[in-house]
Amino acid sequence: MDGMAGDEKTSGKPYDISLKNLLSIKPDEWSALFDLPGNTLITELDTDISGVTLVADRLYRVETEDAAYGLHVELESGHTGSELPRRLHEYSVLAQMRHKLLFRSVAVLLTKGANSPQITGLYEQRLPDGTLVDTFHYDVVRVYNIPTEELLSAGLSVVPLAPLGAFKVKPEAELPYIIERMAARFKSEATDEDELRKLWGASWLLVSTRHSPELAERLVRGAMKSMLTMEDLPLYSYLTKKGQAKGLAEGQAKGVRQTVLTLGATRYGEPSGEVRATLESSDYDRLQQIAARLFAAQSWDELLAPGA
After folding, report:
1. What is d(CA 103, CA 278) in angstroms, rounded to the nearest whole number?
2. Within its chain, how far is the Cα of 118 from the centroid?
3. What pLDDT is stored for residue 286 in this prediction?
4. How far is CA 147 from CA 31, 157, 158, 246, 258, in A?
5. 137 phi/psi in degrees, rounded to 5
6. pLDDT tens-place string over residues 244-263
7. Distance CA 198, CA 228 (A)
8. Report field, pTM of the whole predicted structure over 0.70
9. pLDDT at 56 > cutoff 50
10. Residues 6+ apart with CB under 8 A from 20
11. If 0-12 CB within 10 Å is exposed, 13-18 middle and 19+ buried, where does residue 304 land?
């Protein structure tokens, strides 16, 4: 291993490792998110099932008064939601074979982009003539619909999800305050530096999932300055060493461009094709200059004027 995951089995995706680590800190803290009683005993199970590794997923054994059952959790942030029900079904069958437990599956959708009309909580398989041969039920947790305040007040390992929750006001205005509150809890409640790295690493990644990477790094770097540096985060260090930080940098221009389009539409009306083309051809530095003038300029033409 290269220092990213320790004994963690992985497909090589550093993002997945960071989120899996978050789920592993204190599984019982996620009980409320999965509608489990607060005193439920949860123990982690091996996710390597029949040669198939559940990337970014976790398997747990849940103890009840009567019997035990399995819990399969999958975090989704990408655009492959239409395939999610089938994958959940496959994992559930394999996990049951591996651990001899009946499994409940929960899909945790981190962003609206991970959602799909196919994610209904029910997956059915039918023969060509329409005969129903299999029915699979699963649960869905849409993090982006959960109030940020609720996530901020949850167990410590759930707190990094707060920047993905439902904001009371515009995210741009509320996000710095949320990051500050996260920092206060991490500083006072984390048990050691290793836990701090996991919490901040996941937080940085999750903020980048919904907001621009540049904004995520700036806010996280400032909030954790008395605890850690960005270079202390395994994921950040990994991306830098592997030269993959470039991929995040390329997202900076896209993030600023989207901010200009969103706020500009509110102030000046919907942008024309010419405005969109101008922004698309502008590099990161130019976009930063444009963004800085959003509240001074009175129109799209004034905002994008050459030399402004």
Report:
1. 52
2. 20
3. 83
4. 17, 16, 13, 33, 24
5. -105, 140
6. 545 555 667 787 888 888 88
7. 11
8. no
9. no
10. 8, 10, 56, 57, 58
11. buried
Which DSSP symbol is given to 271?
Answer: P
DSSP string, 15-73: HHHHHHHHHHH-GGGGTTTTT--TT-EEEEE--EETTEE-TTEEEEEEE-SS-EEEEEE
Helix or strand holding residue 152 (H, E): helix 148-152
Name the token pair of 290: 């444009």
Q: How far apart are CA 201 and CA 235, in angstroms?
A: 7
d(CA 162, CA 165): 5
> Which helix H or strand E contains 25, and what residues bound it?
helix 14-25
The residue among 67 and 138 whose pLDDT is bigger is: 138
For strands 103-109 and 68-76, give the pairing. Answer: parallel
Helix (H), strand (E), coil (C) string for 155-189: CHHHHHHHHHCECCCCHHHHHHHHHHHHHHHHHHH
DSSP one-letter code for 61? E
Q: Which DSSP state fits 234?
A: H
Burial (0-12, 13-18, 19+ Cβ within 10 Å), 140? middle
Retrieve residue 94's tokens. Answer: 């394999």
Listed by start position, the domains of the chain span 31-145, 167-243, 260-303
Closest to 114 (Cα-Cα) out of 64, 164, 152, 188: 164
Tokens coding 32: 């409320």
Half-sphere exposure of 155 (CA within 13 A, CB side): 16
How far, CA to CA in Å, does 162 sit from each of 47, 143, 170, 265? 26, 9, 14, 27
141-179 as b/e: b if 16+ CB within 10 A = bbbbebebeebbebbbbbbbbbbbbebeeebeeebeebb
